[in-house]
Write the structure tokens for this entry.
Amino acid sequence: MEFKNLLIETADGVATLTINSPRTLNALNSEVLGELECALFELNLNDAVKAVILTGAGEKAFVAGADIKEMATMTAHEGHRFGLKGQRVMMLIEKMTKPVIAAVNGYALGGGLELALACDFIYASTRAKVGFPEVTLGIMPGFGGTQNLARLIGPNRANEMIFTGKMIDAEKALAWGIVNEVFAPDELLAKAREAAAAIAGVGTLGVAYAKDAIANGLNMGKEDGFRYEASLFGVLFATDDQKEGMAAFVEKRKAVFTEK
Ligand code: DAK
């Protein structure tokens, strides 16, 4: 499918999905959100894709938030539809069986930070600036930001960021655990691709079930989480990948995983 606002490049099991509207700092309008929904849906169904990198075009921004100019004139009904669309994109990323890495190359603000937080982990460039400026617009985060940020860094730091609306830089985002690693701008994509390639080279089902166990386990009590983990672990013993992975170890050769 052709997209007006997205670029998709696939190589060696890794898809790089770039939001490509740098003139508005890749702000999320209804059209971009609709295209993201379609693209992510397709990538999830594509067995050749084992991991996805999500990034923004240009040197300034990952995504500077939801499109304020579009939202400014929305009716309540349009606002509701817009909110549902955005939430569907965030949920899709979380429910995809394959990992999505956010490569935050500049501003990740409001809905842009929510998009990054919906991903499985975040790498950032030294140019990254992240924050939730919604309160400066008289609103609050609405694409899962209050929930995901507080779960990730704890309520106190999340409170500070969300109540003040102030941005923090890459160094602080790293120290606070919002991003996993920070790289020079010209290294960011290569480093994200390195991580994605490592994921693409291991057992697809093991990764998918681990993503499922982590995401769903966080919504359970510890004992239920352990039980859930054990049931997924058990299912892996019915797969060719488990047999191949262990046989390859014993035979001192590289495993060739085939499960999709
Ligand atoms: N929306 C629309 N246009 C934006 C934009 C945005 N979020 N951010 C930047 N732009 C546009 C600018 O208007 C400008 O366009 P022109 O004026 O040239 O036409 C162009 O991008 C370049 O931006 P600047 O000239 O401002 O660039 P600077 O380097 O001076 O400043 C900046 C960069 C990122 C600090 C600044 O652009 C800025 O403050 N942008 C707004 C950031 C922001 O407030 N983001 C949060 C948006 S609110 C919902 C759920 C969630 C949400 C909404 C609804 N529901 C459940 C219903 C989410 C809300 C948000 O994300």
Observations:
- The chain is about 50% helix and 15% strand.
- The beta strands are 6-11, 14-19, 51-56, 61-63, 100-104, 107-109, 121-125, 129-131, 168-169, 181-183.
- The mean pLDDT is 97.
